[in-house]
Amino acid sequence: MKRKMRGRGVAASWYGIARTATIDRAGAWAELDDGGTAKVLTGVTEIGEGILTLLSQVAAEELGVKPEQVTIGDNDTARSPEAAHAGATRQTYMIGNSVALACREAKARLFDEIAQAWEVPVEDLRSFDGFLWAESTNKRITMEEAVALCKKRGVVPVGSGSFTAHGTGLDPVDGHGSPWQAYVFGTQVAEVEVDTITGEVQVLGIWAAHDVGRAINPRGVEGQIEGGVVQGLGQALMEDYQTSEGHPVTHGFAKYILPTSLDVPQINSVIVEDPDPLSPLGAKGIGEPSLIPTAPAVMNAIYDAIGARIRDLPATPERVLAALHEKRRADAQTA
Amino acid sequence: MPELELDLTVNGRRITRHVDPSYRLLDLLRDDLALTGTKEGCGAGECGTCSVFVDGKLFKSCLMPASKAQGTTIETIEGLSRPGELTPVQRAFHKTGASQCGYCIPGMVMAATSALRENPAAGIEEIKERMGGNICRCTGYTKIFEAVEIARDVIAGTLPETALNPELTKTSYIGHNTRRLDAPSKVSGRLKYAGDMEMQGMLHMQVLRSPHAHARISRIDTSKAEALPGVHCVITCDDVPGEDGFGVFVHDQPIMARGKVRHVGEAVAAVAADTVRIAREATKLIAVEYEPLPGLYDPEEALRPGAPVIHDYAADNVVKHIPLRKGDIETGFAAAELIIEERFSTQQVEHAYLEPEAGIAYVDHDDVVTVISPSQNITHHRHMLSTIIDKPINKVRFIMSPVGGGFGGKEDMIYQGMLALSAMKSGRPVRLVFTREESIMASAKRHPSRTSYRMGLTKEGRITAVEFSMLSDGGAYGMSSEGVMRKAAILSCGPYEVENIKVDTTVVYTNNTPSGAFRTFGGMQAQFATESMMDMAAEKLGLDPFEIRRRNMMKAGSRTHTQQTLNSASIDRVLEAAETASRWEAGPPNVRGANRSDLDGPDTRQPCTLGARFNEARHQIEKAKVAS
């Protein structure tokens, strides 16, 4: 066997969107504000996934303004409607859709007033990127002017939205039930190089194909895939929280080893869009699912490279060497 | 305490300060100069969030005593550009989406700036190496590398500055790479996380934690701590006015240990004082008498008859068991032509968000108890806190501060209750910032798991039956364990249609660090086992790994493991997309790595061999040798 052995492996996966085996819900308020800007209030803030940007895109699209003209209110139980927790791959699906619904209501208020003022059918009105116009006419104004006109008529264009995902509980005996209304699927291929003397595994490439429903911000989706893959790689190869009789042994980053810039493979993301038919946006989610296939794809690739199966994570150099030793012993016995 | 006089230049301004001699450069910058863009992630020089320039060289400011900064010139993230302006490196980070939670980003920007100052022509290998001392937990580094390469080329003039501009759209903002709204505040260090916030009259909290994994508490004497000058209040479980107990599914955890401790690092008492130092001194004056109890450190031992009981309500130590039954596995295994039996295990994993837990609590003018913290679930936390402090819901307010990484680890209300109680007792705002060690020992982890797997298949590779049993260590408290077991069970057998299944997932209490919510919530542990089994089966049957997955994959109309009928299933599309993108060479997974033709493509990186940053010097030496 050469010192450096390469191999490839694949793993598939699936995941459910939003809270599990229960009815999930989220609320939002929206207002088309002076200057053609917009306010959106929802019980959520950024945990890093990009939700604020995504919500500004959704609000901009629904209202007809620019994303940078949207202000998202802080997450505050005393000031904003319930949107519940930032987890369960539910932010895009639950909050995104409730914001879309709230914006639709606010826009409908505005459009009703403009349609009456212009004496055109409301169905002919359109708005995008800071302008509002009536199809097949030369009537076109800025959103700033539109909001001013609406307010002059005595109406503040506000709206609220509530979005529901209908999951059901599991039967306590056989577990039957419909835990989610939307599912996503993913597949990753890993290419590794195993050093058969040191046992070190380097992941050189990952090809990650994930269904996200609809990619509202493709670059943001890629960021979630890349982050999930590298957390999956950490779990596959190095991360290991250990205790001894309950006492933490790996109590700092000197002992708890995390992936750094030198461990990262080239990550090739492929975004697949299978829109969700049950929600206004059609988007599903990507936060958690991106992590799942990485570790098994890497273990399958290690097997392809050296013929040793790692069943216990993480595949540290010590474990890889032990598995190689075991394989050589077994090969010698059968020979 | 004697004070140290320092005279140095920070971001172009001469600074003279008298500081505590125990100060690190990081403390001077953050606490004295309010330059909170420099973050503390670990306090041990391991993560790089506190990176600054000292006399032009990149330094980790948590490792440098403030006294060593005498006479130096310091540049922090705030000094890189004037307010409202961004450097090309910062603009490139904005452009590529290189910041997610943003907590590591000021340090990352400093490291990237350093790399390009050291070598404006640095190649990607050198950039990676020069940034190797900075940890990012969110991004997977990829967009950061992209940003640094763009910035390098813009600075060098080989890429026009317009490369940093936003992408335009004429049709729709859905599907558009809108730049992150929060990026300018993150790349410039302006965003305030909970630990960066201050309030008038704010006190500092420190927590006394259990040194025992399992022990009865016979007495807590706080009198000496309360008598220490500068201490405003000491709290224990006796200060809880309402019904004590929190948890995501079962409220089995008291705000502070009540009667006994169940894991090392569990909060026992807390002090609010004028300074962190006084609060820490005071925790050492709290006398706690423990009677050690036999501990449980292995999930299988937890199930043995006669095992120590961790929680009285659960005499069998079982937090939750989730069963799934579909079809009849005996029939399924009888029809199988190949049966594979294997065991798998996964380890306990730390979230390692770069922002340690932090928060501020205060009681406002309307008697509303308010907690600002990076909580991932303020809605549930306010419900629980209102019961714990016995106040109506509208007198409890949770504000979610920017979260410096969560991944599920900030769903548990492990410190917000202590903050609320001390704010109520002292009448002052109180802030708590965890150390990295505290964060690691007190917060939940990914559940470690042990899975027994039995799979039956036909010669054609169709799965006829699966028997799947997973045992997880939930540690000392329930936290999200119940939900994690449920999700692990639902997803267990993967995206495959299996007629006959018997799935059991069980989680037990032990005296280990608690396990809780972590990105995938049990899905990863279960599917690691399933996807390993699929490849083992494919090898035995001589099938390509994509092919065996296609032969079993779910389709529209398939019944899931919980007997839900799917309206659609995109597994066929993602399999094909990955197969095509990776230029996969078909064949069974029988150790053909050495003979594959699809390896080492342009879409892979080169193996890492350290030393890229010396390449230029090496090149110069070689040239000099040739010349001589």
Would you kindly provide a written description of the structure presented here, covering whatever features stand out?
- Chain A has helices at residues 51-63, 91-118, 143-152, 218-237, 294-306, 317-334; strands spanning 4-16, 23-33, 37-42, 70-72, 125-128, 131-134, 140-142, 158-166, 183-195, 201-211, 243-244, 247-248, 266-272.
- In chain A, strand 2 (23-33) and strand 3 form a beta hairpin.
- In chain A, 30% of the residues lie in helices and 26% in strands.
- The model of chain A has no long low-confidence stretch (mean pLDDT 97).
- Chain A has 335 residues and is an alpha+beta fold.
- Chain A has two domains: 4-16 and 183-334, Aldehyde Oxidoreductase, domain 4; 23-164, Aldehyde Oxidoreductase, domain 4.
- In chain A, the strands form four sheets. Chain A has a four-stranded mixed β-sheet.
- Chain A starts with a strand and ends with a helix.
- Chain B is an alpha+beta fold.
- Among the domains of chain B are: 4-187, DNA polymerase, domain 1 (Orthogonal Bundle); 203-293 and 360-435, Alpha-Beta Complex (Aldehyde Oxidoreductase, domain 3).
- In chain B, 28% of the residues lie in helices and 20% in strands.
- In chain B, the strands form four sheets. Chain B has a seven-stranded mixed β-sheet with strand order 8-10-6-17-14-15-16.
- The model of chain B has no long low-confidence stretch (mean pLDDT 97).
- At the A-B interface, strand 1, helix 1, strand 9, strand 10 and helix 4 of A face helix 4, helix 5, strand 12, strand 13 and helix 11 of B.
